[in-house]
Design a protein that fits this description.
Number of helices: 8
Structural class: alpha+beta
Largest sheet: 13 strands, mixed
Distance between the termini: 29 Å
Shape: globular
CATH class of the largest domain: Alpha Beta
Strand content: 25-35%
Number of strands: 15
CATH topology of the largest domain: Aminopeptidase
Radius of gyration: 20 Å
């Protein structure tokens, strides 16, 4: 078995493996990315590692480096993502992961990182077991609220900035660095989004939202649902389709991520959310994704009853264990 860095010419094979490797649980989801390497452009440094045997890719994992505010100080963090196994080699996952972990330990041992983290669906028991085997432990739960896009009228009082400056995005995060863990040390991760015109800001006098168009980069499809959600999906497509984009099964779904929703007034927040729906509907988007640390409460009162919650666990391993204050975790656009 060979362990090597992924090359651009591996992209098509990696995408094929990703699309054949659904994240399991009550909702089975599969990624529909156009470029497996896209996520790396939001970090200071990073790479994809591949386990290969006789020219065939067995599995892969992404490794990215950046600086974060963690436990009230700036630390170098390593983000592990895109852990995928070729379905033909599921029985070899322990073997190839052991080889990859050994290679990573040799590479990262002398580096100055303080911690490593990963995100996994809370009901994906197999992946959680793998991370625990790698020495990771539970850090926090991010509740994702996937909301079918509604045909809304919007509100004229909402200001929409389709071409914000980096400084405008910075304002969202600057005040949070001392209160939330995993806040980025700088705003460079947003530069590609601004250059590619993927960021939007929605504002009212009592609420504001930062929205990322993830089309092509982080679209996904639903391959299986729990019986209750499947029944809702069937009934909803029959009754609500003129007013709501109910996701189809086994299809690529265009998505927008509402990275941050700040508000002082619930009514104003709902106005902002309504305007996001209106713009997303015009743009052919199927789902809006909201997320918030579980300790901060529920977003249901803001995003509506049609949203369905998908909990993700953030797992962490530290180079040197430290006493930590319990802080909510920030949803980064790279998760």
């Amino acid at each position: 078995m060979d362990i090597r860095f992924a090359l651009p010419e591996d992209n098509d094979r990696l995408l094929k493996i990703e699309r054949e490797s659904a994240q399991e649980g009550n909702i089975w989801v599969v990624a529909y990315r156009e470029n497996f390497f896209d996520r790396l452009k939001y970090f200071k440094d990073g790479f994809i590692m591949i386990a290969e045997e006789d020219g065939d890719i067995i599995g892969c994992i992404g490794v990215a480096f950046d600086d974060y505010y963690f436990n009230s100080r700036i630390m170098r963090g390593i983000y592990l993502f895109g852990l995928r196994t070729n379905p033909r080699y599921r029985m070899k996952i322990a073997r190839w992961l052991k080889e990859v972990i050994g290679e990573l330990e040799r590479m990262l041992g002398p580096s100055d990182y303080g911690f490593a983290y990963a995100a996994v669906k809370a009901d994906n028991i197999a992946s959680i077991k793998i991370l625990k085997h790698m020495g990771f432990e539970y850090l926090s739960t991010l509740n994702f609220y996937a909301c079918p896009v509604l045909r809304k009228l919007g509100n004229r009082s909402i200001e929409i900035d389709n071409r914000p400056r980096l400084e405008d995005v910075f304002q969202f995060y600057e005040s949070l660095k001392g209160d939330l863990d995993l806040a980025p040390e700088n705003m460079n991760l947003f530069r590609p989004m601004i250059e590619e015109n993927r960021i939007k800001i929605f504002k009212s006098h009592g609420a504001q939202a930062l929205v990322l168009d993830t089309s092509g980069e982080h679209d996904f499809g639903i391959t299986r649902l729990s019986p209750g959600l499947r029944a809702f999906q069937i009934v909803g497509r029959g009754l609500l389709s003129p007013f709501v984009r109910i996701p189809k099964m086994n299809s690529k779904l265009r998505t927008w991520d509402v990275l941050m929703l700040e508000y002082e007034d619930l009514k104003e927040a709902r106005k902002v959310v309504s305007s996001i729906h209106k713009e997303a509907y015009k743009d052919g988007v199927t789902l809006l994704n909201f997320a918030q640390d579980e300790s901060l409460g529920s977003l249901k009162p803001v995003v509506g009853k049609l949203s369905f919650k998908i909990p993700f666990e953030l797992m962490i391993t530290e180079k040197e264990r430290q006493d930590r204050e319990k802080r909510p975790v920030l949803w980064l656009p790279t998760l």
